[in-house]
């Protein structure tokens, strides 16, 4: 551990900063963990996209499709791939408090910087149950815990509940996936001085930096909107920090077409209850990253949709940025990429 339990909040204030991404996990055509693909994508986001941190084992990683042993191995691969270059937050979500504890202990033992947990999915759909769940885990580990408020998937963390949870010594952050700005403002007012808050939405990042003083973005779009040599999220973030808000606003506004493509392929299907991981992996393949198969209950993408995603990314200019770059790594054609994976 890089800090003591009672130092978790201070460590989080220093470390939970900048642009953090959340990658999917990757599987072979034989449905085993694709460690080489995971390592390659981690290297891309750290070396080329220059993220400040990474969150593994989240919703986009299909954690709910994975046995505990596989999740633990995936965390180890992620940690090995970061190689100390950026901090790593391990998703240790589980309906069972005992299994969540086992995952959290493992994250602590292998050297992850933080663990992040959703509220219980079924048994604890009340404030007292959620508080008991987090106390049970927090009492038995030293690693800093980040709360994941995702009301669309689990029981919501209200400002009142957040106040109680923030009293736990090693609760040190909150990922806010509730898109209601009123909820964010109330959480900010309740616990913003005690724990670090990240709204998991790049669309409001500029506003939250300039109006709320936020300094931490945790979401998946840094690896979808950016390619080597074109880092608009990182760049406008730096402009805000440097005090050039006007230039930052213009650069942020230029991402509107990409945000609309993301809304079409990721956010809207997600809102309608259709997990869009196949579309995300296709998008990633088109910009030179690893993608690959998905696991049930996620539905594979059709060839027609794959072609439409390609056309949309061409139209918004993202693929043009890929074509303008010198090739430092293999940047395979999507069809060749699928053939390569099928032959493994």
Order of helices and strands: HEHEHEHEHEHEHEHEHHHHHHHH
How much beta, percentage-wise?
5-15%
- CATH domain topology: TIM Barrel
- CATH architecture label name: Alpha-Beta Barrel
CATH class: Alpha Beta
Structural class: alpha/beta
Order the strands across the largest sheet as they lie in space.
Answer: 7-6-5-4-3-2-1-8
Largest beta sheet, briefly?
8 strands, parallel
Fold topology:
Elements: H1 8-15, E1 18-22, H2 35-48, E2 53-56, H3 68-82, E3 88-91, H4 97-110, E4 114-118, H5 127-138, E5 144-149, H6 159-166, E6 171-176, H7 181-191, E7 196-199, H8 205-212, E8 216-218, H9 222-225, H10 232-242, H11 245-253, H12 256-271, H13 277-286, H14 303-315, H15 318-323, H16 334-342
Parallel strand pairs: 1-2, 1-8, 2-3, 3-4, 4-5, 5-6, 6-7
Helix pairs in contact: 2-3, 3-4, 4-5, 6-7, 10-11, 13-14
Structure description:
The chain has 344 residues and is of the alpha/beta class. It has one domain (5-342): TIM Barrel. Helices cover 49% and strands 11% of the residues. The chain contains 16 helices and eight strands. It has helices spanning 8-15, 35-48, 68-82, 97-110, 127-138, 159-166, 181-191, 205-212, 222-225, 232-242, 245-253, 256-271, 277-286, 303-315, 318-323, 334-342, and strands at 18-22, 53-56, 88-91, 114-118, 144-149, 171-176, 196-199, 216-218. The chain has an eight-stranded parallel β-sheet. Strand 2 (53-56), helix 3 (68-82) and strand 3 form a beta-alpha-beta unit. The longest helix is centred in the C-terminal third of the chain and has 16 residues, at 256-271. The chain starts with 7 loop residues before the first helix and ends with a helix.
């Amino acid at each position: 551990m890089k800090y003591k339990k009672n130092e978790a909040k201070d460590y989080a204030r220093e470390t939970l900063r900048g642009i953090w991404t959340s990658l999917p996990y990757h599987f072979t055509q034989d449905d085993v963990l694709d460690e080489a693909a995971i390592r390659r994508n981690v290297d891309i986001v750290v070396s080329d996209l220059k993220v400040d941190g990474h969150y593994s084992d989240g919703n986009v990683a299909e954690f709910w499709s994975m046995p505990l042993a596989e999740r633990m191995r995936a965390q180890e691969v992620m940690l090995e791939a970061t190689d100390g270059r950026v901090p790593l937050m391990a998703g240790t979500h589980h309906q069972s408090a005992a299994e969540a504890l086992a995952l959290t202990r493992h994250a602590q033992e292998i050297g992850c910087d933080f663990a992040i947990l959703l509220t219980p999915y079924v048994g604890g759909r009340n404030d007292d149950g959620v508080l008991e769940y987090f106390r049970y885990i927090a009492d038995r580990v030293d690693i800093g815990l980040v709360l994941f408020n995702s009301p669309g998937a689990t029981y919501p963390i209200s400002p009142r509940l957040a106040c109680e949870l923030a009293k736990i010594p090693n609760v040190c952050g909150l990922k806010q996936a509730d898109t209601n700005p009123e909820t964010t403002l109330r959480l900010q007012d309740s616990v913003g001085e005690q724990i670090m808050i990240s709204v998991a939405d790049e669309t409001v990042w500029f506003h939250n930096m300039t109006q709320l003083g936020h300094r931490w973005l945790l979401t998946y779009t840094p690896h979808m909107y950016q390619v080597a040599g074109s880092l608009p999220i990182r760049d406008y973030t730096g402009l805000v920090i440097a005090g050039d808000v006007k230039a930052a606003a213009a650069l942020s506004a230029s991402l509107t077409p990409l945000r609309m493509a993301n809304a079409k392929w990721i956010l809207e299907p997600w809102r309608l209850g259709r997990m869009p991981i196949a579309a995300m992996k296709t998008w990633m393949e088109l910009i030179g990253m690893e993608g690959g198969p998905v696991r049930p209950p996620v539905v594979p993408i059709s060839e027609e949709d794959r072609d439409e995603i390609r056309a949309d990314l061409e139209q918004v200019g993202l693929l043009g940025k890929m074509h303008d770059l010198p090739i430092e790594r293999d940047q395979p054609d999507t069809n060749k990429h699928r053939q390569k994976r099928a032959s493994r």
